[in-house]
Amino acid sequence: DFLFFWGAVFLVTTTLVAFLKKENEELIPAKEETKGITDTYRLLFSIIKMPAVLTFCLLILTSKIGFSAADAVTGLKLVEEGVPKEHLALLAVPMVPLQIILPLVISKYTAGPQPLNTFYKAMPYRLLFGLEFAFLVWWAPKVKHEGGFPVYYYAVVVLSYALHQVTLYSMYVAVMAFNAKVSDPLIGGTYMTLLNTVSNLGGNWPSTVALWLVDPLTVKECAGAQGHTCATAAATEV
């Protein structure tokens, strides 16, 4: 019902915009260097062959490896340790206003000539939150009781997630500001799309690999089955 309602709202509002919003035809569009799809891809290849762009892409594709496990697996491991999914979902609600305010605050520090300084400064703190999240997972079974988890545990989780969001958005906004700063205005949309796509890939592929590695890297013990390591799915089933 929720998805149906907002899907209907989305369709109605976008349809109204399409029919009722008129373009300002008096404005002369800026000169574009591309005329079609083929030209655009040629331009993309010429951009990505630039040494500075190649170096930047390499850095941005590998910069988030250190956060991948903490970002992708923490929530799943908390659920595995008994934290109810619905409680974790509710904990995300206080993050919404924070996620709205943070880009506005951080943009003041990324508006200067060196926006990536904020990226560098936030990185060690975000790495430390990987240890903090590991502690939260380890701590969960220690404080769990018959009625669930105490309020102070949820308070620590919310505080940890909130501070983690500060480091996450500091890096995110800094990269976006840098991409906007270095993009050629004549092909700004194409240039920024390329860099932002690489940035998104840099966050997605490490998380995928981290999720894939969870099972083989998890230490398992078999109860009542001596000589079995339970290292494989078949051994676990036996």
Automatic annotation (TrEMBL):
Keywords: Membrane, Transmembrane, Transmembrane helix. GO terms for biological process: acetyl-CoA transmembrane transport. This is ACATN protein. It comes from the Eukaryota. It is a multi-pass membrane protein. It is found in: Membrane. InterPro entries: AcetylCoA_trans_1-like, AmpG_permease/AT-1, MFS_trans_sf. SUPFAM superfamilies: MFS general substrate transporter. One of its GO terms (molecular function) is acetyl-CoA transmembrane transporter activity. Its main location: membrane. The chain crosses the membrane at residues 6-22, 43-67, 87-111, 123-140, 152-175. Pfam families: Acatn. GO terms for cellular component: membrane.
